[in-house]
Write a structure and sequence with these properties.
Keywords: Membrane, Transmembrane, Transmembrane helix. The chain has 195 residues and is mainly alpha-helical. It contains nine helices and four strands; from the N terminus they run ααββααααααββα. The chain has one domain. The model has no long low-confidence stretch (mean pLDDT 81).
């Protein structure tokens, strides 16, 4: 079990989660001005971007070894990926909720929501692009949203879920829907190729 935890990069994911949570608590509510391609220029909250850190490290652990070896050993790779992602997303939400209850502002909730969505995007793109490219594409999501996701008046477009405030039910639903679709994609395609 210890070997499996190390092989799937649990220490790195834990460090990334703690680091992102610390950044969301300390500077997460700071805004970065973003030029827009359409609509009006808006603000990008730091917590919306630091959510990439735990997302990338959680996904880094997915099939770090050769998936063909797992199948040769008759191990269910899809079930392990789903379990791995579910545990980490739950831990990110638990830590963020605890920090918020202890007085941290809503940036920690945005960080947890966006981590959930970024992981979902990568898992959804994984069968088409491979895991590494899917992680890179998910890292581009906040940049695309920041550049094209603002309406006149500085309000985020409905589809630009990473830009919405922490109390946005629509953004929360979108993030969890992306995660659910990504996990379904993993289950429907259990045989993986490396990459």
């Amino acid at each position: 079990m210890t070997w499996w935890i190390k092989a799937w990069g649990a220490p790195g994911a834990a460090i990334a989660t703690v680091t992102a949570l610390f950044l969301a608590i300390t500077i997460g509510s700071r805004e970065i001005p973003v030029p827009a391609l359409t609509g009006q220029a808006g603000q990008f909250v730091v917590a919306e971007l630091v959510a990439l850190l735990p997302a990338v490290m959680i996904l880094q652990g997915v099939h770090r070894g050769d998936p063909r070896t797992e199948h040769t050993a008759v191990r269910s790779g899809a079930v392990r990926v789903v379990a791995w992602v579910a545990v980490w997303v739950t831990m990110v939400w638990g830590a963020s909720a605890a920090a918020h209850l202890l007085g941290a502002d809503s940036a920690v909730i945005e960080m947890a929501r966006n981590t959930t969505g970024y992981v979902g995007v990568a898992l959804l793109l994984r069968p088409v692009a491979g895991l590494k490219a899917a992680v890179a594409f998910s890292a581009a999501v906040p940049l695309v949203c920041a550049a094209a996701g603002w309406r006149t008046g500085g309000i985020a477009q409905p589809w630009a879920w990473p830009l919405h405030p922490a109390n946005s039910v629509l953004a929360l639903i979108q993030a969890f829907l992306l995660l659910a679709m990504g996990l379904i994609a993993v289950m429907l395609r259990p045989r993986e190729t490396p990459g």
